[in-house]
Amino acid sequence: MSGKDTLVKRITSNSARVGVVGAGYVGSTIAHATAKRGFPTIAFDIDFSRVDATNQEKEKNLTATSSFKRLKSCDVICICVPTPIHADHSPNLDFLKEAARTIASNLHAGQLVIVESSVAPGTTRQILLPLFVRSGLKVGKDFFLAYSPERIDPGNNMPFGQIPKVVAGYDEASKELVSLFYGSFIHRIVPVSTLEVAEMTKVLENVFRLVNISFINELTAYTNRLGIDIWETINAAATKPFGFLAHYPGPGIGGYCIPVLPYYLLDSAKQHNVSLSIVANAAKVNEKRSDIVVKKALDVLHKNGNGHTNGNGHTNGKRAQVLLVGVTYKRDIADSRGAVTFKIWEKLEENGAHVSYHDPYIAKVNGHKSQNLTTEILAQQDLIIITTDHCNVPYTLLVDAKKPLIDTRNVLSAYDVPHIIRM
Ligand SMILES: NC(=O)c1ccc[n+]([C@@H]2O[C@H](COP(=O)([O-])OP(=O)(O)OC[C@H]3O[C@@H](n4cnc5c(N)ncnc54)[C@H](O)[C@@H]3O)[C@@H](O)[C@H]2O)c1
After folding, report:
1. Residues 307, 326: one domain?
2. Could you tell me if the CB of 152 is within 6 A of ligand 1?
3. pLDDT tens, residue by residue, 240-289
4. What is the pLDDT of residue 418?
């Protein structure tokens, strides 16, 4: 029986053993889904705490390990390691290459490797494939290679199996195998013709969000100047039954996907001598968005005579107290990675303010504890900034404190009181 036929048999009979490399947000979601589907699943991670946490769950069909030799026992291997950017915004493929090298050293005939990490088009074929073939095995003959972008949306309750999965294979056999594998527990599979189309699909989805949110954020400078309510305008435009998709202003986009992947695209475009000025400008607008929030905050504090230690003539011996409400990068989740609140925090402190925070999902961060929203704590504040629009924050308490309140998310749209300042 060929390697492909064996894999088909194992997938269809539920006996395929799945290895998920990187047991973080994406990897653990996939590992739980495959275990639930009935595939014996091993989650691999270099972080022992992730391994322990997964093992403590005692989920049926799922174990975790840092012993990568056990990759040899897997039929299907999904790569879910981080693909961040360096401080200069250049892509950091170190985690991905390291994971690929580890897999390559355990690769054997009859395995299917699926890359899930978000990357620029061409990465799977040009960067990862050469690492896999160093094993001496031939792709499409001995082992199979696929790319399938991950679309999990933290905070969104849509079940994993309901999110259509785009898949592509290095060759026809790889495409058939990845389609069969995911099709066994995901209701809709969208096969595309090449690895690059699948990689680009994820890039397009993220860049689409970046460009549209940055566009709306930029537009607020104009509408604010003219005294036009951007939120009311967007909601009116959204009544158009076709050709308009509402995006809303905010303090800037955080997280590990939307503000990151466009830089992978820009890097790739540069290598191919293509100028993507809209994407480049959208990324710049996003980077600067937190400065606009900080400027607004400082203007409010200066206007109200609150002290700073930034030497700009506004010192009165007292540091302004600023409370940030929400440190996660989006609402109703417990993930603060890459959250824009930290940029705002840092810049406010650089300008002399004393910053504290409240977040119902994050008890401690950066050596600080989430503040309870008591009358005493709120009374000490010179300014409150709503940075994340969690549903379970008692917003009435914030409004009733009658302190200047910058609402970057328009959660207080129902209130018409002068101490609420909108972006
Ligand atoms: N988080 C999301 O909402 C989301 C959504 C879609 C796509 N993605 C993409 O999925 C990928 C993973 O993102 P994530 O949010 O799950 O990251 P994460 O940081 O939550 O998890 C990644 C895990 O990989 C582990 N790891 C790093 N190097 C490893 C190696 N060599 N071998 C084994 N484990 C290793 C880390 O310890 C970590 O536990 C990224 O490319 C990301 O862009 C993320």
Report:
1. yes
2. yes
3. 999 999 999 999 999 989 999 999 999 999 999 999 999 999 999 999 99
4. 87
What's the pLDDT score for residue 303?
Answer: 86
Residue for token digits 């929203």? 373
* Residues 315 and 399 grouped into a single domain: yes
CA distances from 410 to 40, 122, 313, 391, 416 (A): 46, 40, 32, 12, 12
Percent of the chain at pLDDT exceeding 70:
97
Helix (H) or strand (E) holding 422: strand 420-422
**323 and 182 part of one domain:** no
Q: Tell me, what CATH number does 377's domain have?
A: 3.40.50.720
Stretch 127-155: mean pLDDT, rounded?
A: 95
For ligand 1, atom 38, the nearest C-alpha belongs to 24
Report how far ligand 1's centroid is from the alpha carbon of 22 (Å). Answer: 6
Mean pLDDT for 169-187 is 97
81 in contact with ligand 1, CB cutoff 6 A? yes
**The length of the chain, given as a count of residues:** 423
Tell how far the Cα of 151 is from the centroid of ligand 1, in angstroms. 13
Question: What pLDDT shows up at residue 315?
Answer: 47
State the DSSP string of 276-290.
Answer: -HHHHHHHHHHHHHH
Question: Taking Cα atoms as reference points, which of 127, 132, 116 lies closest to residue 182?
Answer: 116
Q: Is the pLDDT of residue 232 over 60?
A: yes
pLDDT tens per residue across span 19-42: 999 999 999 999 999 999 999 999
CA 97/CA 79 separation, integer angstroms: 11
Co-location of 74 and 164 in the same domain: yes
Question: Is there a single domain that holds both residue 182 and residue 239?
Answer: no
74 is catalytic: no
Render 59-103 in DSSP notation, one character per residue. -TTEEEES-GGGGGG-SEEEE-----B-TTS-B--HHHHHHHHHH
* Ligand 1 atom having least distance to the Cα of 44: 33
Structural domain span for residue 111: 3-192
Task: Single out the residue in 176, 192, 208 at which a domain terminates.
Answer: 192
Residue 148 has pLDDT above 50, yes or no: yes
311 & 394 share domain: yes
User: With a 6 A CB cut-off, is 84 part of the ligand 1 pocket?
Assistant: no
On whether both 211 and 255 belong to a single domain, the answer is yes
Give the active site residue among 74, 78, 257, 391: 257
- The best mutation among 21, 26, 128, 332 to test binding of ligand 1, ranked by most ligand atoms within 8 Å of the C-beta, falls on 26
Mean pLDDT of 3-12: 94
Does the predicted model carry a pTM greater than 0.90?
yes
Q: Is 202 in the pocket of ligand 1 (CB under 6 A)?
A: no
Cα(158) to centroid(ligand 1), Å: 20
- From the CA of 102, give the closest atom in ligand 1: 31
